[in-house]
Amino acid sequence: MNATTFPRLLLAHAAQRPDAPALREKEYGIWQTTSWKQLAQMVANTACGLHQAGLHRGEHLIVVGANRPRLYATMLAAQSLGAIPIPLYQDAVAAECVFPINNADVRFAVVEDQEQVDKMLEIREQCPQLQHIIYDDPRGLRNYTDEGLASFDELLAAGEVFAQQHPQFFHNEAEQATAEDVAAMFFTSGTTGNPKGVVHTHRSLIDRADAGAEFDRLTDKEDVLAYLPPAWIGQNIFSYAQWLVCGYVVNCPESSATVTIDLKEIGPTYYFAPPRVFEGMLTSVMIRMEDAGTLKRKMFHHFMNVARRVGPKLMDGERVGLMDQLSYKLGDWLVYGPLRNNLGFSRVRVAYTAGEAIGPDLFTFYRSIGINLKQLYGSTETAVFVCLQPDNQARADTVGVPCKGVEIKLADNGEILVKSPGLLKEYYKNEKATAEVLSAEGWYHTSDAGFIDSQGHLKIIDRVKDVGRIQGGDHDGAMFAPKYVENKLKFFPHIKEVVAYGDGREKVCVMINIDFDAVGNWAERRNLPYAGYTDLAGKSEVYDLIKECVEKVNADLSEDTMLAGSQISRFLVLHKELDADDGELTRTNKVRRGFIAEKYQPLIDGLYAGKTEQFIETVVKFEDGRSGSVSATLKIMDAKTFTPVKAAA
């Protein structure tokens, strides 16, 4: 398997099981199936069309859009010709596409629809080499006459004619590729400076896809829902690399608005989502239960107590008493089974979450109702799979054990170093950055701080560069891990985002985004009126609710000998949601802490100056591209901190 390429995997499936389903796409409410044979033909015609249009071996091509069969076919077609596909985030604004296109000298863009075409046309002056823009969905594009603009149908038709005239062309091209050739490039989120192009070979991506498949015993019988951005390597591995390695079915939802409905219709067996998605699902369940009748609510809470006590033990293969078994079976019939079905998880055999830490309560909830939710650790540079959790050893506070082919060691400063067949080849056109992360001995510097626990599981603390020290005050010299603090607060359903500061300061202060849906429902049940996010975020009752969460985290931190000094002294609730369009988050929803510190400097000054309120005016970008401003006077509140619990001698 390791000495092959993605086009060869495609051709093998098409030869061995031509009529088996490869892809499904929902269009106008109906699922349309593409078999492996049909897909191979589509890829061949697309490759011939791209060749005729002038795509050369070694050249880059960008793909921008949601998960769509034709965009998957484009990536395979490019790889068949020896070209290199670069998926970009479909929700990125036009300006964010300029650097990747110019950095990789891109002449070809294959995009999903009018929205993406408009972006490409908008930046053409800044990217003069962008000659060809090919679109899949023609809606709204009838009167566009721009040079180099063509429909995917035209590309396919031209490719089909060429393929008939040169029947061996596609197979000859596909056979030229080797496992060491570059297969794809993924741009990092660029939390600091320009994003970096992570170069991966066929071997690195296929090896990691194969290791993950072997670990979880994946087969061609799996069903996967591909709903996250293809530009994120996590989605790309699960619905592209592993799809081609295993030969299972990838299902593409109709739109982002129909994902929850499509999830229930498909009932995937293998599922992947960041913690935020699992949080959103649980929040919606709890909101519905609060609105349910008294009897139904009591039954739900009774059996959920049984599930929390018994469910995780059953998932881990432990023995439980007969009465507990019977209670759990009754709960499964009345509550857990219908709930799994309602969430779309009735067939899930393996579910993964990654990207950031998941709250213990959230993790336990899903495992307790019979969903095999696990965590993994990896990154774009490692082709995702570094550590995975075995089925009977899934814990909320670790990210699993090193998977096949991976070695881990810790640097003197606690940084996690990784050796793996899935490591990046290089950062594109960036030798300096490559040398910084890849040692001469082949160790990759993850920039994450952590340690291996007594059971051999990896535990992540924070980013190495973010781990700081408190200076001055009661906790002078104590370790400060901002991401750890932020994640502990985000485990509460009422809190969506957190930014923590404290390195080099005498205390820790945080800025918080409430979860508008969860807090809105909480307010409505208390007959608390509000006129939008800013109004709700400023309510004194909401501040009291958030203060309770902060102080629970402080009590928890006081028991941690390493991080007791990271307790939160003061907090405020932001007047707007942090947004990638405003530069505050990356496209993978990671906080850009440094950027936020500059943008909200008056708020940070107010937190540390002991003020009780602070005025702020913020420039925001609306969905239609217009800019405006939001202003508010924010309350600043103190939180109770606790005396650190001394470790037992």
Notable features of this structure?
649 residues, alpha/beta, Rossmann fold, Luciferase, domain 3, GMP Synthetase, Chain A, domain 3, five-stranded parallel sheet, 29 strands
Secondary-structure topology with pairs:
Layout: H1 6-16, E1 21-27, E2 30-35, H2 36-53, E3 60-64, H3 69-80, E4 84-88, H4 94-103, E5 108-111, H5 114-122, E6 132-135, E7 149-151, H6 152-165, H7 169-176, E8 182-187, E9 197-201, H8 202-215, E10 223-225, H9 233-246, E11 249-252, H10 259-266, E12 270-272, H11 275-290, H12 294-315, H13 322-343, E13 350-353, H14 360-368, E14 373-377, E15 387-388, E16 401-402, E17 407-410, E18 415-419, E19 426-427, H15 431-437, E20 444-452, E21 458-463, E22 468-469, E23 479-480, H16 482-490, E24 495-501, E25 508-514, H17 516-525, H18 533-537, H19 540-557, E26 568-573, H20 593-599, H21 601-608, E27 613-621, E28 627-635, E29 637-638
Parallel strand pairs: 1-11, 3-4, 3-5, 5-6, 6-7, 10-11, 12-13, 13-14, 25-26
Antiparallel strand pairs: 1-2, 8-9, 9-19, 14-15, 15-16, 17-18, 18-20, 20-21, 22-23, 24-25, 26-29, 27-28
Helix pairs in contact: 1-2, 2-3, 2-6, 8-9, 12-13, 12-14
Describe the structure.
The protein is built from 21 helices and 29 strands. It has 649 residues and is of the alpha/beta class. It has 3 domains: 6-272, 3-Layer(aba) Sandwich (Rossmann fold), CATH 3.40.50.12780; 398-464, Luciferase, Domain 3 (Luciferase, domain 3), CATH 2.30.38.10; 467-638, GMP Synthetase, Chain A, domain 3 (2-Layer Sandwich). The strands form 8 sheets. Strands 4-3-5-6-7 form a 5-stranded parallel β-sheet, with helices on both faces. The chain has a 5-stranded mixed β-sheet with strand order 12-13-14-15-16. The model has no long low-confidence stretch (mean pLDDT 92).
